[in-house]
Write a structure and sequence with these properties.
The protein has 118 residues and is an alpha/beta fold. The chain has one domain (3-117): 3-Layer(aba) Sandwich (Hypothetical Protein Ychn, Chain: A), CATH 3.40.1260.10. The protein is 43% helix and 19% strand. The protein contains 6 helices and 5 strands, in the order βαβααβααβαβ. It has helices spanning 15-34, 49-54, 61-67, 76-81, 85-90, 105-110; strands spanning 3-8, 37-42, 71-75, 95-96, 114-117. The protein has a 5-stranded parallel sheet with strand order 4-3-2-1-5. Helix 1 (15-34) links the parallel strand 1 and strand 2. Helix 1 (15-34) packs parallel to helix 3 (61-67).
């Protein structure tokens, strides 16, 4: 089975970042359709996307809803640092704090996941 971890790090501030998130979600949909072992993790400024994407008027909201079951979580430290911890919790997204209040990306590699960052 293919194991893929998509790491969303891009900030919400640019059209380029919007494209990156859109591409990440398209890969996620393809992976879900193929039955891959998929994890989506929001890290760094990427934690800000959750609040934006929860807004039903956002152009990627529908796509976000389609891949939301594959979202493993968001970095606890970064969500706090970027002021979106409450928003992430309200969205029902798990705050990850495996290694010094961050998700352990190393453990994903150890577990055989291909890490792709956007």
């Amino acid at each position: 089975m293919t194991k893929i971890a998509l790491i969303i790090m891009s900030d919400t501030e640019s059209i380029e970042a919007l494209g990156k998130v859109s591409n990440a979600f398209m890969l996620a949909l393809e992976s879900m359709e193929q039955g891959d072992d998929l994890k989506i993790i929001f890290e760094g400024a990427g934690t800000k996307w959750i609040g934006a994407l929860e807004d039903s008027s956002h152009k990627l909201h529908g796509l976000y809803q389609s891949v939301k079951p594959a979202i493993t979580g968001a970095c606890s430290f970064c969500a706090t640092a970027f002021g979106v911890k409450n928003t992430v919790e309200k969205a029902g997204i798990t705050l990850l704090s495996d290694y010094k209040d961050h998700p352990s990306l190393r453990q994903l590699v150890v577990d055989g996941y291909a890490l792709i960052s956007f």
